[in-house]
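Structure catalogue
Derive tokens from sequence
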Amino acid sequence: MAQLKYGDINDDALRAMQKPHLPYLVTIALLALMVGGAAVVWANQMLVGMGVTGLNHPVGWATYIGNFVFWVGIAHSGTLISAILYLLRAKWRDAVSRSSEAMTIFAVMTAGLFPMIHLGRTWVFYYILPYPSQRQIWPNFISPLIWDVCAVGTYFTVSLIFWYVGLIPDLAAARDRFEITHGDDAFRTRLYRALSLGWSGTGNQWRHYGRSYLFFAALATPLVISVHSVVSWDFAMSLLPGWHSTIFPPYFVAGAIHSGLAMVLTLLIPMRKLLRLERLIELHHFEMVARTIIVTAAIVGYSYAVEPFIAWYSGDPFEWQFYRWRMFGTAGWIYWLLIPLNVLIPLLFCFRKFRTSFAWLFLISLLINVGMWLERLFIVYTSVARDFLPHNWGTYTISWTEAAITVGSFAFFFFFFFVFCKTFPTVPVSDLKERIADEEIEPCERCETAVQAKINPARPAVLAVFSNAGRMIQGVRAACDGGFSVMETFSPVKVEEVHKVMGHPKSPVRFWTLAGALAGLSGGFWLAIGTATVNSLVVGGKVPVSPIPYCVVAFEGTVLLGSLFNLVGMIFHTRLFRAKTRPFYDRRFSRDRFGLLVTCSGGEVEILQKLLLTAQPEEIHVHR
């Protein structure tokens, strides 16, 4: 990627959005057919009853809940790559972050189906929502199942907002490209025009956008840890052997990231080839994903070793008999299959030969996906099949209904991902361009003149167009040193140095985020305590209000409202609610050109032109 220019990145990324060919349409049709078939099977289950599944006493949780845990886990790597690695300034994340974020959203959508499928009576799913019913029945906020709803709902909302906000500059690039190639009235032109909200890439917009994106990353980061920890508490808060374990939260989080990273490889290796993105997504990026998988495989392997050891070392006869059954009973074949699939084979990435071969990367990623799906099923159903009482022991066999719906869930996930690949930029165009801009910009001191970032169409102005971010900074400095104090920049990438030279203050978006987070924190406690005091029931000798469990609800409220307020603040300060590009905007400013618009009086135009010429612009336009 080192030899690519701004325009090359733009063209490669947006070319993948061209009109699809016949094989793509056939694939989409097949996936839609599979989803439709699964929907029919689900409808039959609702009509006939849960007896068509393999669920029966004592195994009430099996494939459906296992699928839920698996898909929530798949969603984890997207946030890891987009948020945590962004905060850690890991540059290799850029090429794979957009697709990973999309994968997160579609995986959560898929996961969200399974609790409703598992309910049987899907039409009463709204009982879990906290709304004031006429019967004064509220969800129990002490229950891990309600925490699950709060956590997964927050995760989906924040991931969707985070993904969309990251897309806005690239949607503007798509808008400008489709306006040129398809005309202003084409459907996709109008779609991208609406979705880009009038993004113009002005310095003021980038200033607020950059801070907002940083806060989104900061808010999304704890969700990586919290969501699957909360999912693990669905099991760990019970008393069943195999489930009641304190190792479950880190075990689940590591396993989730493990499976999610494997799915990134499974999706992106063929996508890169089919969409001809070889110049943007290189082998190096996959190698870094493989290196991260080594870490998660080691944690998963440690968990596999610790679980039976603790069962033996604890001296608990129920735990130990359960683990012996897990290893040598009817489910033992899954237990012994998990170790090579999830630990030994992924550790082959320790050898360079395996992590630098697309064939090995793809094959191992598939095996990890199979292994992690088996692990989720194994964890879910074995504990309920073998609890404390021998007369209560049972078995479980997956039915064709559950198998068909499971296959349909994979088709559902891949259907949306295929649609995404042809509808939106699959790589973060502006982030990749930013690497080029970073090399062009040299450190520059703040200008002594107080600069106002403003566009005034009513006054004379000079617009200089540059092909180099560093020269635009020089132009800003020259105009500023010449005493001109009203100017604005246009850029396809975020250029932090502009704000430093102009001496702009920090974006006030942070106050919006703080206000939202505090409102969410207090609102979460208010909701949980308020619902507990509606009937003030004493259950199990416990007081109605339990502040410690309510921290989960308050935490999710903090992240959810903090993100929503952050989004509102960003839109307000960047003026994206106008949905129109700013005056003097040029379509090239979303592709490969930088603009500097300096406002002046009629008599200062020539002086200003001379000052800007010192920065070697490609073009200068005078607007009187």
Summary: The chain is about 65% helix and 5% strand. The radius of gyration is 27 Å. The first strand starts at residue 452 and ends at 453.
